[in-house]
Design a protein that fits this description.
single chain; 350 residues; alpha+beta; five-stranded mixed beta sheet; four-stranded antiparallel beta sheet; 5 helices; elongated
């Protein structure tokens, strides 16, 4: 996010100033969807597709059934339990005190000194009443960031009280996390920009969270798709809500049929053989989130992969203005209403 390719993308959600995401950038992105014929609205980790696996004995070993056989072997009751379990896990992840609903700020660092604390005059503004007016300074020199804590600030890291230390960004493994009571913050790197993402485990958004509405589970939206791998290594451009574009590895294309028509989705690489799909459809901006939805699958097997749209979920930007989510590529805008998976949360936040 690396924990998963999805988290990596979310953590690589790469012109915001003054610590606030330029929501106009997302509006422009959604408008781009609308210009292509799509209406627009007026996190935490998620489980993979995990299709129910049958087994077959072969040469004394137990091997997974093919995707088609696995689906055929799944009873309606077992499938209902699977979806209920997936949704319960999703809800639990969203309620996590370290999840996306705890985001309360994103601030881009200038070269040199960047003061942080609860005073509004700081470059990095922490929640009022939960941090000293001036708690310290983040010093940026190119790609390196060092923190200098103000004496008595109470700033700590996993290693203990902080006076001065270098901060590892989120691009290579776990970032250095600093804490002040319920507040935590760390450095993110997006292209050549460095920012500070701030969380509050007692955020109002988390306290007010009331769950995400979903379409009723519909097995008709759980399909066995054909996986067409690219013949050579390939990347596709993925633009985020800030208008920044990165080339992301794509292992191939997922091809499926629904209602007698054939649809194609360019897949992204989750890093472990599984796939990640970013898509928009005819519900986008109406019943579902205006910037599209995400969907994970298990690794393809024998040229097939189960795509379960009942497990389509909202990106972090649906819950907070402080995430920088990737948008579906143009070729992944489906000319069909995918009436499965999560609907938009509240008013879609943006």
């Amino acid at each position: 996010m690396r924990t998963s390719k999805l988290d990596q993308l979310k953590n690589q959600h790469r012109k915001a100033r003054g610590g606030r995401i330029a929501t106009a950038a997302l509006a422009a992105a959604c408008a781009a969807l609308a210009a292509s014929g799509w209406a627009t609205a007026g996190t935490a980790g998620t489980a993979g597709t995990a299709a129910a696996a049958g087994t077959a004995a072969a040469a004394g070993n137990t091997v997974p059934a093919s995707p088609a056989a696995a689906l055929a072997a799944t009873s309606p009751e077992a499938y209902r339990r699977e979806i209920d379990s997936w949704r319960a896990t999703r809800d639990s992840n969203l309620r996590n005190p370290n999840g996306w609903l705890t985001l309360v700020g994103l601030f881009w660092l200038d070269e040199g000194d960047n003061r942080f604390g609860s005073d509004r005059g700081n470059r990095v503004v922490l929640p009022a009443g939960k941090a000293p007016a001036f708690a310290g300074t983040l010093v940026r020199h190119g790609a390196a960031v060092t923190v200098r804590a103000e004496p008595g600030s109470g700033l700590v890291s996993d290693a203990g009280p902080v006076t001065e230390m270098s901060m590892a960004p989120d691009v290579k493994g776990k970032p250095t996390v600093l804490r002040l009571g319920s507040i935590s913050f760390f450095v993110i790197k997006r292209g050549d920009r460095l920012g500070v993402r701030v969380k509050d485990s007692q955020s109002p958004a988390l306290a007010a969270f009331h769950g995400v509405e979903s379409y009723p589970a519909d097995a008709g939206w759980r399909v066995v798709a054909r996986f067409e791998p690219h013949q050579r290594p390939m990347s596709i451009p993925i633009t985020n809500v800030l208008g920044m574009t990165d080339q992301e590895p794509s292992p191939g294309v997922v091809v499926f049929e629904h209602g007698g028509k054939t649809y194609r989705l360019d897949a992204l690489d989750n890093g472990d053989g599984s796939l990640e799909l970013l898509f928009a459809d005819a519900t986008t901006g109406r019943e579902t989130y205006g910037a599209g939805r995400f969907l994970d699958t298990d690794p393809p097997r024998d040229g097939k992969v189960v795509v379960d749209f009942n497990k389509a979920y909202n990106p972090p930007c649906a819950f907070t203005t402080f995430a920088t989510c990737p948008l579906p590529p143009r070729q992944n805008r489906l000319a069909v209403a995918v009436t499965a998976g999560e609907k938009k949360y509240g008013e879609g936040h943006h």
